[in-house]
Design brief:
The protein is α/β, with parallel strands linked by helices and about 270 residues long. The chain has 7 helices and 11 strands. The chain has 2 domains: about 80 residues, Nucleotidyltransferase, domain 5 (2-Layer Sandwich), CATH 3.30.420; about 150 residues, ATPase, nucleotide binding domain (Nucleotidyltransferase, domain 5, 2-Layer Sandwich), CATH 3.30.420.
Length: about 270
């Protein structure tokens, strides 16, 4: 069974990440700040023209930010008059969960976990370094067991500036090679950068101790490359992990539909 061609739109807290998949292969992806709805919709309309003739072509959204996702979806529907399916409500993410019954998990975490396990077929830790940082564990059977959530780098830097009277406003950057921050700016960058890396290392070690094996570690998110490139703890950085999870979800949904149709015919 071939994979469907889709446009996947992941709406986060600060940016939109959209991708075009043709027959299951990611052909192109783009990032837009959340205030660029018109530009995002224009790109999606252009992509749709490439796949609209296919019978199973679909537009999917996954969102942790309804205040952006809903107007963007409405804008696209006004221009294309097509159905847009939302992962989480219209389509389930194909991954098992072992969480407290009342827990509502962000769809991005589940999509990242599903994509990581589908690729690796082994226990893994999935780090998403965005507005928030999540460090989640998937066991060797492909079950999402949960993890940890902490403020992302930009949130930490902004909080230091906004909640003090003298600390400057900074953007995340690599700290210098001097182990001691010799200026206020470098002291802040050292604290945030190494604090995040230290937190991730401790969590991965904690998960490994509980699981009694050291898992593969995969990272995604806007800050992943800056934070974890050349960090021996992280085995692989995959910026498109959430989009890949959306493509896997679409393929799984198609397989379920075709199986149901086959049962009806027999």
């Amino acid at each position: 069974m071939s994979a469907p061609s889709i446009i996947a739109i992941s709406v986060g807290n600060s940016r939109i990440h959209a991708g075009l998949f043709i027959n299951g292969d990611l052909q192109s992806d783009e990032h837009f700040p959340n205030n660029q709805l018109t530009e995002s919709a224009h790109q999606i309309v252009q992509w749709w023209e490439q796949i609209a003739s296919e019978s199973r072509a679909t537009i999917l959204t996954a969102s942790v930010n309804d205040s952006v996702c809903k107007p963007l979806s409405a804008m696209i529907q006004d221009q294309l008059s097509v159905d847009i399916y939302r992962i989480g409500s219209d389509l389930p993410v194909p991954i098992g969960e072992q969480l407290n019954p009342e827990t509502i998990t962000g769809v991005d975490r589940l999509l990242n976990a599903a994509a990581a396990y589908a690729t690796l077929k082994q226990a893994c830790v999935v780090i998403d370094a965005g507005s928030a940082i999540t460090v989640d564990f998937v066991d060797g059977e492909g079950t999402f067991l949960g993890g940890a959530i902490t403020p992302g780098a930009s949130m930490q830097l902004r909080s230091l500036h906004e909640n003090t009277t003298t600390l400057p406003e900074l953007q995340l950057a690599l700290p210098d090679d001097n182990p001691f921050g010799k200026s206020t700016s470098q002291a802040i960058l050292h604290g945030v950068f190494h604090g995040i890396r230290g937190m991730v290392q401790r969590l991965v070690e904690h998960y490994a101790q509980h699981y009694e094996a050291f898992p593969f570690v995969i990272a995604t998110g806007g800050d992943a490359k800056l934070l974890f490139e050349n960090e021996g703890l992280v085995d692989r950085i995959v910026p498109q992990l959430t989009l890949l999870g959306m493509s896997i979800t679409a393929k799984h949904a198609l397989a379920v539909t075709e199986a149901d149709d086959s049962d009806v015919r027999t």
